[in-house]
Every structure is written in C-alpha cells, then in structure tokens.
Amino acid sequence: MTTTTAAHAEHPEHGPARGLMRWVTTTNHKDIGTLYLLFALTMFFVGGAMAMVIRAELFQPGLQFVEPQFFNQMTTMHALVMIFGAVMPAFVGLANWQIPMMIGAPDMALPRMNNWSFWLLPFAFAMLLSTLFLTGGGPAGGWTMYPPLMLQTGEALPFVIFAVHLMGISSVMGAINVIVTVLNMRAPGMSLMKMPLFVWTWLITAFLLIAAMPVLAGAVTMLLTDRYFGTAFFNAAGGGDPVMYQHIFWFFGHPEVYIMILPAFGIVSQIIPTFARKPLFGYSSMVYATASIAFLSFIVWAHHMFTVGMPLAGELFFMYTTMLIAVPTGVKVFNWVATMWRGSMTFETPMLFAVAFVFLFTIGGFSGLMLAITPVDFQYHDTYFVVAHFHYVLVTGAVFAIMAAAYFWLPKWTGHRYDERLGRIHFWLSAVSVNVLFFPQHFLGLAGMPRRIPDYAVQFADWNMISSLGGFAFGTSQLLFLYIVVKTIRGGARAGAEVWEEAHGLEWTLPSPPPYHSFTEAPEVR
Amino acid sequence: MTGERERANRRLTLRIAAVAVAMFGFGYALVPLYDVFCQVTGLNGKTGGRAAATEAYAVDPDRLVTVEFLATVNGGEPWTFRPAVARLRVQPGRSYVTHYLAANPTGRAVTVQAVPSVAPGLAAQHFHKTECFCFHRQDFAAGEAREMPLVFTIDPALPPEVGTVSLAYTLFELGETRAN
Question: What residue of A is the nearest CA neighbor of B173?
Fold first, then answer.
C-alpha cells in the first residue's frame, strides 16, 4: 500500500486537472474523446447552418437570398465542414472514448499525440472558415477541388489547402493511435477475433486513413504548386492533365467514403445485438465483409468520373468492381436483420436510430448501385440523384449511427440517463424530416436537376419546396438533440454500470461514469 | 514491462508513420504512372507531340470517317482561334491538309501553344499528324493574324465502330514573346 501512496504523491495529476488548462493539456482518452465529440457537434451545427442557406435559396426557383458565388461557397464549405469537421471527428471521438474501454486498456497507446491530433482541428477549421471573410470569399469550386476551376479561387486557396493538410495530419495521427492501441494494448485473452465489432471496423478504417489521407495531401499540394510555384501537374499547357487530378482525388475519395461509414457499421453492430438481446449473427463474416469492403474501396475510384471519357474496358471494370461491393455490404445488412430475427427486441432511442440506419442506409446503397451502372450514370452524373444518394448514406447512414452511438453510450460517459421520451421524439422528428428532405431529391435528379447551381427550371419547384421544408424541420430537430445532450451531461437519473439490460462488453463492467483511468488492472476476458 | 510495451508501441508507430509518408509519395508517383499508363494504352486522347513518320497506307476507298475540328481559347483570352473548316469527310489512309486561323488582338507580341486532344480517346493512336502547329510554340506579333497548317492521316487500323473523330485544340497564352 505504501508504495502506491508514494507513487500517487509523485503524480498528483491522477484525477483531471482543474480549470480550462485541463482540456488544453489533457492526454486522457476520455477527455480527448469528449473534446472531439463536442467539436464535431459544433461543426455539425456550423455545416448545418450552411445547408439551411442552401435550402433557403433553393426554396423557390430564381435567385432569392444569396449571390450565386456565395451559394457555391456554401455547397463547398458545407461538404468540407461536414466531412472533415463533423463526421470524421465524431468517429474519432467515439473511438477515443470506447476503444480503450472495449479492449480493456488503461488509455490510448499514444496519449500525447492524441492531444496534438485533436488540437490541430480547431486551428484547421478556424483557417478554413476564415476564408469566408477574405476578399473573393471562400472556396467555391466544390469540395472535390477539381482544377482548373479550383485554381481560380481567390486568396482563399492556400488557406483551404493548408487547412486540408492539417485535417489530414490530424486524422492520420488519430489512425496511427487507433492501430497501435488495438494491436498492442488489448487485455490478455482479448484475441483479435474476440474484439467488439466497433473496434474491428475502426481498426480497418484506420488502415484506410493511413493509405488514403496522404494521397489527398499530395493532390492538394500539387494544386498549391500549380498555382504558386509554376508546376504543371494539372495544366494542359505545360503538359499536365486536369483529368489526372480526378484520378488522384478519387483514389483518396472512395476510401474516404468508407472511412465515414465503416465505424457506423461497427456502432450498429454493437447496438442491434444489445436491444435484440441476442449475440451478433455471423460475427466473423462481419469482420471479413468489412475487410473486403475496405480492399474493394481502392479499386473502384473511377466510378466517380465515368463521364470523363474512358474506354469500354475501363468502364466495365469499374462498374463490376463497384457492384461487387454490394456483396459484402449485403452480408452485413442480412446479418443485422438475422440478429434481430426472433430477438427480444425493445426500441429505446439507440435501437430506433440503428434500425432506421439499416433501412435508410440500404436505400442509399441501392441508389449507389443504380449510379454504378455506367450507361445510366451518364444521365445521373452531377444531378440531385447523386446528392440524394450520398446524403442517404451519410446522413441517415453515418450521422444516424453517430446519434445512435451518442444515445447508447451517453449514460456510460455521463453516469446519467438521457430523457427517453425526448430521445424518441428527436428520433421520429429526424427520421420523418430527413426523408422529406432527401427523398424528393431522387425525383429531381432523375428529372435532370443539376447539383451545385442556385437556380433551377420551374418544373423542379414543387419538390424543391418540399425538400427545403424537410430540411428546415430536420435542422430544427437537431436543436432538440443538443438540448438532450446538455441536459444529460448536467444531470438525470443515475445509470448503473450495465446501463442496458444484459449488455455485453468490457465497457459495461465499469461504473457509469467510468473512472478517469479505465483499466489500470487488465480485466479478465472470458 | 511498461518499458517493453512502450518500445513496442514506438516501433509500430514508426512503421505506420512510414507507410503514411510512403503513401504521400505514392500520390506523386501516380503522376508518372498515369503518363506511362496513358502512353502504353493510348487512353487519354493525347496525340504525340511530334510529327508522325510519313507512311504509305493502303487506302480504304469504301470507308469514310468524319473528322470534326474544334478550337477553344483557354481562360477567356480575347484571341480569335478557329478551324478553317469545321468538319471533313476523310478516307482512312489518305493524307489531308487543313488549317486553323489564329489572330492576336492584343497590342503585344505573344507566344501561344495549342494543346490537342482527340475524342474518342482510343482514336488518338490512329490519328497521325505529319505536320502541326501544335508541335511548336507559336510567336505572334502585336495584332498579327495567320493561318496555321495541319497535315494528317487517319490510320486504316482505326476500329470500325469509330465513325467520327473529334480533334480539339486549346490555345494557351504562354506570355509575351521574349526577344532572342
């Protein structure tokens, strides 16, 4: 006993430090997880406000509220903020909170790097958002940043590129941390094939990040040197090729979309067994399906650019490999359904979001399959059909999974139960309004309405108005989520260690809220 | 025990960081790979920047291919740049002469370069130019206008499903002509 007391005397910082500096200097995985999640929530509302501008402008045909240039800045910034500021940091936050608790580790493997990788983000986004106030405004060439259009950006260009660099460095460091933690810090007995699926999907996502993010960094660096240092990577006059940018970008871009969905698969694979009160159906097939999706994501990139002019053999290759992804994804969907089959299901808020995820993500998957068909993609390319598709997989997919995770683990993190009635109201408001928002966009796209344009022909007016109404309702509903989260942090009914009836997993063996250092003694894994 | 774990963590961290750095390099390696791939397969509609050797082809008298000529000026420069004829019906194997017109409206001497692109991309390797203004930079005096010649042959090996070939030139201003 005396030795431990002495050790504690030498390290007085064993509880959280007091004051604001606690959050600046923290190396604790729970603190950093909280910072990531709060940052993601903030960016969710910033990006959401931009979406409200877009939907307000599209409420009626004609130009209403904003200049076309500003509209394009909004579509570009909305995407960058939501992808790099909301969805990805939210997943990293969840990984920080959950992975050490789920594998029985005391903390992440590289706590100082963890602090650094979070604190890069506020600076990256301050820089990115500040471009809106520069002469010439923010970037307006679309989040994909295609040259030569993107090279015509005003003073904002280098700020955007350096912001992307910082985000990339941050997420690569986060990914390194996850891989080292998962591979080196597991409790004795926690073999790879005993890991919870959320840990598995994050491990695979981390490898995708390591392989994909540096390629994006390279692509935007080439943009920077093309603009300021006289290189001609994408400049035809100097022997370059702008189409090459699209190849390099989407070599990053397609793995990126799986970076934003694989952790969601993991979350849903934790929640559905808990509320169906059955073990996950087909655990190992889930692991292999995730790995197959990750592999396939590197060989399908050109399906984003069928219309640039590709030989038939190329179009067939990318069409078939893209369709092949439906096989492992189908395995996952059927496994979730089979897990629910004859389970003793209850529908608390996390389960509602998880079931909605399975249903609505599948709709997004099917519209993805339609887009994979090369001949029809020529019709759908750059229309609202594409917008509807990726919002089904990203909003009702990734964002719904993040919300499910927040409701699922919030009692564990705070020690308080959230208000179940409000949670369900939030779910139903979101689930209905999100479909009013995005489903009509399928019709608009099939009818030929192009994306990223502030005006449209009058025949698109009705569905756009409905879509905008859904958008305003969805945006407003998220304020309820904010209220519920704040209320739960501040107080509420005490949550026990287990939180959910017969929940399995190491995190439920810890008290709620868990101690500042989770497993100082490695737990026993059965 | 903890020292051992820390060493293991550091080793793994360095390895993964090395992979990340290598992937940054891979992004750049894609540039020459892309060029080589396009050269080998002839996919991206680029015709060689050099004159093709004059070859005698067997002319196929029963086949006619439409060649469309297009001209674009990059970045909204006020240049006049257009083909003398918009469209030719040609017999594969026979040599044809046409030209493009370009006029420098500015009061400066300017050097320009035209960059070609052929669609469909696979037709590029069957589009042989024995003489082209695009092989060289073109110096224009202030206010100068002139015709620039193009001599080409369509290879009879052009796949039979290709009935129309589009040849597009984009004119890039390279800056004011330097006095030699």
Answer: A237
